[in-house]
Automatic annotation (TrEMBL):
Cofactor: Mg(2+)
Keyword Ribosomal protein: no
SUPFAM superfamilies found in the cross-reference section: Nudix (SSF55811)
Name the UniProt record assigns to this protein: 8-oxo-dGTP diphosphatase
Organism lineage string: Bacteria, Pseudomonadati, Bacteroidota, Saprospiria, Saprospirales
EC number in record: 3.6.1.55
Family: Belongs to the Nudix hydrolase family.
Coiled-coil spans in chain: none
GO terms of molecular function: 8-oxo-7,8-dihydrodeoxyguanosine triphosphate pyrophosphatase activity; 8-oxo-7,8-dihydroguanosine triphosphate pyrophosphatase activity; 8-oxo-dGDP phosphatase activity; 8-oxo-GDP phosphatase activity; metal ion binding
UniProt enzyme class: hydrolase
Species this chain originates from: Aureispira anguillae
Length: 128
């Protein structure tokens, strides 16, 4: 039986654009772009995970909003459930603590970044 992993990701919108970040080298999906987030720890709610991950990765405080439709995908021997949430920055300045760079994208234009595969499904949801 395949292991399941729940991963949250933050959909942060400012001035009509959405935040994506580039993964560091030496990580899975090195140098790909993604909506920021991470694994749900045991005993942690999805919302708690979302707030914790954005604090750890970007040093920002967020209000976690609406949960979007999760995306499930299979990767080697693991099933990953990617759980996106709309988030609003309520404190701090974005500081890249784990990623190489950030970009603000207009989802109504072609994406010029090499996103992680599941993140394309989030873009499709946002385009509605």
């Amino acid at each position: 039986m395949k292991q399941r992993m729940r991963v949250t990701c933050g959909v942060i919108k400012q001035a009509g654009k959405f935040l994506i970040v580039q993964r560091a080298g030496g990580t899975s999906h090195a140098f790909k772009w993604e909506f920021p987030g991470g694994k749900v720890d045991p005993g942690e709610t999805e919302s708690e995970c979302m707030a914790r991950e954005l604090k750890e990765e970007l040093d920002i405080e967020v209000a976690v909003g609406e949960r979007l439709i999760p995306i499930e995908r299979e990767e080697s021997n693991v099933i990953i459930e990617l759980i996106p949430f709309f988030c609003t920055i309520i404190g701090g300045e974005i500081t890249l603590l784990e990623h190489l760079q950030l970009a603000w994208i207009d989802i109504n234009k072609p994406i010029q970044y090499d996103l992680c595969i599941g993140d394309y499904s989030i873009v499709d949801q946002l385009r509605g």
